[in-house]
Design goal:
The protein is mainly α. Helix content is 94%, strand content 0%. The model has no long low-confidence stretch (mean pLDDT 82).
Amino acid sequence: MPVYFTCSVCILISCCVTKLFYRMDNEKGYF
């Protein structure tokens, strides 16, 4: 159970980081 919880948290964090970088890239492209 703890391993599954850690894995899901890792995936959630990586997803948030990817969205953040994608947003920064878009803003950089606009300006």
